[in-house]
Design goal:
208 residues; mainly alpha; 3 strands; binds manganese (III) ion
Length: 208
């Protein structure tokens, strides 16, 4: 699924995990995935649908449309849609950016990383640094600009980097790692690099 091109609208469904709860072990354990997907994401989906329920005019809007037109929404639901719609968007993309099958970036992506960051390893260390630097809850992202150049950004809370094109993100809210890693965010970040689904990242980069 490409979350950017996703055409789903109200009532937004709870996405299925694209792998088993054990698939990312030992890097991310099944208990963490159960709580993160079945409880945290589910709550964002429910709250988003609840906020939109009284507004039939918005029921055919996609998540992308809602999140990039927040100022056009009724004032009383703007914040709720930003937080919960962002929570749905970010988590769908996060879960859909991981795999239990080891892989590495393709030559196209590797080349784009070399241009933007010097090398794949330098991208890794800059991405890890960005993820570690998020104060409190938020995300570090790999995004592409309109001209195809790559950059790293961070966002607080459930903000998204839209309309920049998101390729990959790491969730550094404590709920993403605390059950398994407790306060050791750096260890979680280091292991997250082992479960990146590079096929999906490349698909987003190429606009598929
Ligand atoms: Mn999360």
């Amino acid at each position: 699924m490409n979350a950017i091109a996703d055409s789903t609208h109200y009532p937004f469904p709870l996405m299925l995990l694209p792998y088993s709860y054990e698939a990312l072990c030992p890097h991310i354990d099944s208990c963490t995935l159960h709580f993160h997907h079945d409880r945290h994401l589910k709550t964002y989906v429910e709250n988003l649908n609840k906020a939109l329920a009284p507004y039939p005019d918005l029921h055919n809007w996609t998540l992308y449309q809602l999140l990039t037109n927040l100022e056009k929404l009724p004032a009383e639901i703007q914040k709720t849609v930003k937080n919960n719609g962002g929570g749905v968007f970010n988590h769908q993309l996060y879960f859909d950016s991981m795999t239990g099958c080891q892989a590495s970036p393709s030559p196209i992506l590797t080349r784009a990383m070399e241009i933007a960051f010097g090398s794949f390893d330098q991208w890794k260390s800059k991405m890890a640094e960005a993820a570690a630097s998020v104060f409190g809850s938020g995300y570090a992202w790999l995004v592409s600009n309109d001209d195809g150049t790559l950059r790293i950004v961070t966002t607080p809370n459930q903000d998204t980097p839209l309309p920049l094109r998101p390729l990959l993100l790491i969730d550094v809210w404590e709920h993403a790692y605390y059950l398994q890693y407790q306060n050791l965010r750096a260890d979680y970040i280091k292991n997250w690099f082992c479960v990146i689904d590079w096929d999906k990242v490349e698909g987003r980069y190429l606009g598929k």
